[in-house]
């Protein structure tokens, strides 16, 4: 692996993401890849932590994601911004990780909620995006911990990272209507979980 001259390392800081990726692929230089880590390591860590809620595990996952990213960097095609592609890469990794571990799949509480009321979205029903922002933030955060990992990833990508529908299309190689359908279903399931959380909270208050 090449050793990067000091002045080149300094110049790398002013390169755009796409230019930096191109340089990394050209040189296979790990020091240059470290620049990507400097730019996005903390953000990826926070996303990992939001899924596992454990600092050490989130740190390990962040390292695993960047190692895999280095090996898969040549699959980036610049059809979406690099940051968008990286977040998608991270979410896909996390969803697969959660699904591999039966203890992290779905909590008993989620299973109880799902058993009491089907959380699938009717084909003719929709939830306005504004409805998400009208929810109490604490309820929303609790609900995000209970929904399916794939729903959580898609919702965070759209509403936390601000990824446009057209970019999600490119990432997942699906058409616009399919993206909107997935988002609609994820929103409805999240809203229903929020309603159940608030209902449980009200029932607990009445019991005291």
In short:
The chain is mainly α.
Task: Please characterize this protein's 3D structure.
The longest helix has 32 residues, at 176-207. 74% of the residues lie in helices and 0% in strands. Helix 10 (165-172) crosses helix 11. The protein has helices at 6-12, 17-27, 30-52, 55-72, 82-100, 108-116, 129-133, 137-146, 149-159, 165-172, 176-207. The chain folds into two domains: 1-102, RNA polymerase sigma factor, region 2, helix turn helix motif (Rna Polymerase Sigma Factor, Chain: A, Orthogonal Bundle), CATH 1.10.1740.10; 106-208, Winged helix-like DNA-binding domain superfamily/Winged helix DNA-binding domain (Arc Repressor Mutant, subunit A). The chain has eleven helices and no strands. With 208 residues, the chain is an all-alpha fold. Residues 1-10 and 121-125 have low confidence and may be disordered. The chain starts with 5 loop residues before the first helix and ends with a helix.
Q: Unreliable segments (pLDDT under 50, ≥5 consecutive)?
A: 1-10, 121-125
Share of helical residues: over 70%
Subunit arrangement of the protein? single chain
> Judging by the overall fold, what is the CATH architecture of the largest domain?
Orthogonal Bundle
Q: Using DSSP, what is the number of strands?
A: 0
Going by CATH, the homologous superfamily of the largest domain would be: Winged helix-like DNA-binding domain superfamily/Winged helix DNA-binding domain
| Average pLDDT for all residues | 80
CATH topology of the largest domain: Arc Repressor Mutant, subunit A
Using the coordinates above, name the CATH class of the largest domain. Mainly Alpha
Shape: globular
How many domain units?
Answer: 2
Number of distinct helices: 11
Q: What's the order of the H and E elements?
A: HHHHHHHHHHH
**Approximately what portion of the residues adopt beta-strand conformation?**
under 5%
Query: Largest beta sheet, briefly?
Result: none
Counting helices, strands and paired strands, the structural category is: mainly alpha
Q: Report the radius of gyration as a whole number of Å.
A: 20 Å
Quote the distance from N terminus to C terminus: 66 Å
């Amino acid at each position: 692996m090449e050793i990067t001259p000091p002045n080149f390392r300094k110049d790398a800081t002013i390169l755009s993401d796409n230019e930096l990726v191109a340089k990394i692929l050209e040189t296979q230089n790990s020091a240059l890849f470290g620049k990507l880590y400097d730019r996005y390591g903390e953000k990826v860590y926070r996303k990992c932590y939001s899924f596992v809620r454990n600092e050490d595990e989130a740190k390990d996952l962040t390292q695993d994601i960047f190692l895999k990213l280095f090996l898969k960097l040549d699959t980036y095609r610049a059809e979406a911004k690099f940051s968008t592609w990286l977040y998608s890469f991270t979410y896909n990794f996390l969803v697969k990780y959660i699904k591999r571990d039966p203890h992290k799949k779905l909590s008993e509480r989620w299973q109880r909620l799902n058993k009491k009321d089907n959380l699938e979205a009717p084909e003719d029903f929709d939830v306005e995006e504004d409805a998400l922002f009208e929810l109490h933030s604490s309820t929303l955060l609790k609900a995000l911990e209970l929904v399916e990992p794939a729903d959580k990833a898609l919702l965070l990508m759209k509403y936390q990272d601000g990824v446009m529908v057209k970019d999600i299309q490119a990432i997942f190689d699906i058409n616009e209507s399919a993206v909107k359908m997935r988002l609609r279903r994820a929103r409805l399931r999240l809203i229903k979980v929020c309603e159940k959380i608030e209902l449980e909270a009200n029932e607990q208050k009445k019991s005291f």
